[in-house]
Amino acid sequence: MSDDRVNGAEGGSEPAIAPQEDRPVPQHAVIAGVIPDQSPRVLREAARYAKLLGAPLIVTHVDVTRFVTYEDPDGYVHSAPIDLDLSTGEAQLSLIQDAARETLGDSDVEWSVRQLVGDPALALKHLAEQSDARLLVIGTRKRGIGESIREFFTGSVAARLAHRQPRPILVVPLGEPAGDDEDLWPDS
Fold first, then answer.
1. For the chain, is the Cβ count within 10 Å smaller at the N or the C terminus?
2. Which domain holds residue 97?
3. Domain count, the chain
């Protein structure tokens, strides 16, 4: 297992990724897009598929509090925080690393942790292109009015990935599934 921080871009320009410490991006990987305090089910499913495909697993967190400022000719990406408190992204990465160690520690799948910056769908798309990924694995968000409003304006990461790149996507449901007659986006 190794821990890497990788930068991806957001916005209209093509995202860029540059592994720190000169570690190459694993090729033909399964990519798991995760967030802090998410159910370990996403990592377990990603590891299961990585094992079935004989592929390495890249556990990925996207720091949405940072954005790309410019990219060097050699591909290294410089980023800047939206908020001057840099500890938010570092704390989230630490939570992701701990969750990966706990969930995947006994796994016989080769795995690493990387952090991207910017828009989650664009950053994951670009990492998938860089690694020629075999599969993207992401979890659903918790239901609620706040998430409904966010997805109305930005779209879900799963939907945006499905329309912007050619790789298969596994969306892992979290929590209890809604009933057939239950309103998915309650008014309150």
1. C
2. 3-141+152-172
3. 1
